[in-house]
Amino acid sequence: FASGASIAVAFDSFTRFLMAGFNPVVFFDQDSQRLLSGNLNKDDVAIGISLTGETSSVVNCMKNAKKNHAKTICLTSSYNSAITEYADIKLFTIPIKSKYQKTDMHSRMAQIAMMDCIFIKLAFGFCFTITLSGLSKMALQPNESTAYIRGVYS
Question: Are 61 and 117 in contact (CB under 8 A)?
């Protein structure tokens, strides 16, 4: 589930999982997301992506999914945000502000990298450290049901 700029992250992940033979579902409108969240069950996994963790439509979808006993994962930059209340697994990216960008593009890239790690783990059965030469280094550090991804920029 995603809204606004986070939809790009959700759609990118949707495409990867679809090409690997999984059966992902992504909707761009909030009404369809809400309907989907109400129809999930214990065999489903719901991923909520929200930079602030406070987007009401995404939080409500995660709440519905959790109520229906789906496994829930959130991806956000805010540790104590509303979305974390409904997530079985909490994934955090560290927000990086830049005076040259109006949007938090670095955090979006970190979110895509985190979703790529989930994809690699599910599709190939392992996780690793990602290095983008010259641009950034990103390290995945698991901590029980919480993981962090940090971008280091030169």
Answer: no
Tokens of 13: 């992940």
Strands (E), 40-135: 45-49, 71-76, 89-93, 130-132
Phi then psi for 152, rounded to 5 degrees? Answer: -115, 120
Q: Is the CB of residue 137 less than 8 Å from the CB of residue 131?
A: yes
- The string of pLDDT tens digits covering residues 23-57 is 999 999 999 999 999 999 999 999 999 988 999 99
pTM of whole model > 0.85? Answer: no
Minimal CA–CA distance to 114: which of 154, 75, 56? Answer: 75
108 membership: H or E segment, kind and range: helix 105-124
